[in-house]
Write a structure and sequence with these properties.
The chain is mainly α. It is built from 3 helices and no strands. It has one domain.
Length: 65
């Protein structure tokens, strides 16, 4: 496990000694992490768009007064 601390993330050291099922599981978890991050990024973008739109609307309303 020294690969994580030392010269960066080295998969071959972590997977070493684990069967093919372990490698498959690792690929699956990586895929799930990517999809979770994609979902989170999408949600954050939508959230920011709503904030920006609301702020623009607020500025528009105050400038009309």
């Amino acid at each position: 496990m020294r690969g994580i601390r030392g010269k960066g993330y080295d998969e071959s050291e972590i997977v070493h000694g684990i069967s093919g099922v372990g490698v498959k599981y690792q690929e699956h978890t990586r895929f799930r992490l990517i999809t979770v991050w994609q979902f989170a990024a999408k949600w954050v973008m939508q959230f920011w768009q709503k904030i920006i739109l609301f702020h623009q609307y607020e500025v528009l309303m105050t400038s009309e007064l």
